[in-house]
Design a protein that fits this description.
Low-confidence stretches of chain B: none
Number of domains of chain A: 1
Shape of chain B: globular
Oligomer: heterodimer
Helix content of chain B: 25-40%
Radius of gyration of chain A: 18 Å
Distance between the termini of chain A: 23 Å
Helix content of chain A: over 70%
Structural class of chain A: mainly alpha
Strand order of the largest sheet of chain B: 5-6-7-3-8
Number of strands of chain A: 0
Number of strands of chain B: 8
Largest interface: A-B, 27 and 29 residues
Mean pLDDT of chain A: 88
Chain lengths: 225, 210
């Protein structure tokens, strides 16, 4: 079973890095969102620094949403989903493998790119480590919760937008606690807010690790059979 | 690769797609070493029946069982299903594709014999995107050999294949049957299997509408 899990994961990683796989798409989308913000708002450095954590989080969320539809849709269209559903690997584990692959190709690169983009938004250097830590804790939830929306809309033509609409409400706690943790570290918030936000962010991620694969497996079974 | 006392038993099976009842009251059985060719006009439910056995379409009523019982593996993991779609990724090479399937199935350590059986070795390093329809079909069929599974469900397996490849597939099917395996194929063309039983689904369907 472990062999099947890693086979699916390695295949998804390999496909993401190949032409047309869309592995770099999320990072470039993130870059575009963050670079147009100063152009739209104007060169007020204080204002930019203030909204930087929020903008980076919104960028992260949108990039994750953008890539959700490739979780199951491509496999469904070329018949791979039939094969994947017929293995010894339980559907829940299959979804988990796909979510881990999604996180490694979108979530993790975005976390690594965040300080570089923070530079564009005049984010204070001291905020980099807490922001990255918060993103590292929160981004797995985006991939795992995203599987639910992707599974519900598999088989729907142009289902990507529908998946985004379905998943967005689930992303809001991640956004609130993520921005909370990042701004608490930079501005003069009461002590303890940073730690609390991080704990809640971690809690959301842990819950999503369980809820995401189970709910997505139910949705896939209902959808494909 | 010996399968002893294997059998597939289908009892009183019904299939619904959307609100439409495709067939019901379908009973048939298949024993180790036997091949069954499903025939009948389009839309009679050949593909639906194969997908039901593979666990990909819901069983409305009735039962499907594969003997001997195996608690460790779900039924779908004990059979091969080759459908209309080849389940190939254009960006992966022939060898990578076969490697993935073998790992996913927990099957063969070396994928070359399976590729060789379908004459795909010269193409092993080529991305799937450059294969012709028949070559893609052969790669899809190579799954059958990458892991040993007792029941093969083949949905129009010969589509796109040239005569040499059909002969090759026939030889592999005969070897599978000799080893005690079972084959259920939906096809309009004669597969040339001497010992195959023919089952016309239209006979069952007529009973439904009558």
């Amino acid at each position: 079973m472990r062999r099947a899990f890693s086979a699916v994961l390695m295949r998804d990683l390999r496909l993401a890095t190949r032409a047309g796989g869309g592995g770099g798409m999320a990072v470039f989308f993130f870059l575009i969102v963050v670079t147009i913000v100063p152009l739209g708002i104007g060169p007020d450095l204080n204002l930019l620094a203030m909204i930087a954590p929020g903008m980076l989080w919104v960028g992260l969320l949108l990039s994750a949403l953008l890539t959700l539809d490739r979780l199951f849709q491509a496999d469904f269209e070329d018949g791979s989903m039939d094969i994947l559903m017929m293995g010894d690997l339980p559907l829940e584990a299959l979804v988990a493998a796909k979510a881990v692959g999604h996180w490694l190709t979108t979530g993790l690169p975005l976390v690594i790119a965040a300080p570089l983009l923070g530079l564009l938004l005049n984010l204070d250097e001291s905020a980099y480590p807490p922001l990255m830590l918060a993103m590292l804790l929160g981004s797995p939830a985006l991939s795992f919760l995203g599987t639910i929306g992707a599974a519900l809309t598999v088989g729907v033509r142009r289902g990507g937008l529908l998946a985004s609409l379905l998943v967005m409400p689930f992303y809001i706690p991640v956004l609130i606690f993520g921005v909370g943790a990042a701004s608490a570290a930079t501005s003069a918030m009461p002590s303890g807010v940073y730690g609390q936000s991080l704990s809640l962010l971690g809690a959301v991620s842990l819950v999503s690790l369980v809820v995401g694969p189970v709910a997505a497996a139910v949705a896939l079974r209902a959808n494909l059979r | 690769m010996s399968h002893t006392a294997t059998s597939l038993t289908i009892t009183d099976l019904a299939c619904e797609r959307g609100a439409r009842r495709v067939f019901d009251g379908l009973s048939l059985s298949l024993e180790g070493g036997e091949a069954l060719v499903l025939t009948g006009p389009n839309g009679v439910g050949k593909s639906s029946l194969l997908r039901q056995i593979a666990g990909l379409v819901e069983v409305s009523s009735g039962s499907i069982s594969l003997a001997p019982a195996d608690e460790d593996h779900p039924m779908a993991a004990r059979l091969h299903y080759v459908g209309h779609l080849d389940a190939l990724k254009p960006a992966m090479s022939v060898h990578e594709t076969a490697r993935f399937w073998a790992d996913f199935y927990g099957g063969a350590a070396d994928v070359m014999p399976a590729l060789d059986a379908f004459d795909l070795v010269p193409l092993a390093t080529l991305p799937v995107a450059y294969l012709s329809a028949g070559q893609k079909r052969r790669l899809g069929l190579s799954r059958l050999l990458l892991a040993s599974r007792v029941l093969w469900l083949l949905d129009e397996p010969t589509v796109g294949l040239d005569t040499a490849s059909i002969e090759r597939l026939k030889g592999l099917m005969e070897a599978h049957l000799e080893g005690g395996g079972m084959i259920m194929a939906a096809t309009h063309l004669d597969l040339g299997l001497a010992q195959a039983r023919h089952f016309n689904l239209a006979d069952v369907a007529r009973q439904v509408t009558a």
